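Encode chain A's predicted structure.
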Amino acid sequence: MAKVVMYCTQVCPYCVNAERLLKNRGVTEIEKIRIDLQPEMRDIMVAKTGRRTVPQIYIDDYHVGGFDDLVELDQADELMPRLNK
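Encoded structure for chain A:
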């Protein structure tokens, strides 16, 4: 299973939905980087992704994007191949 990293906050409904979708696809471990608890990580996230919103999801080195991007990847049947590398 690929490594999944998600920049998130505690109260973000899109983060919760992204985690739920990933777990439904068999992901058992998500490395969460809480930018609400570590504000300096927001700057790192923005520098890496060019985006200010959460979640920002990585599968290994591939930047998926946010929740909508994750859903699109799943609907295009491209999520599982990335997770099962």
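Residues 4-83 form a domain with the Glutaredoxin fold (CATH 3.40.30.10).
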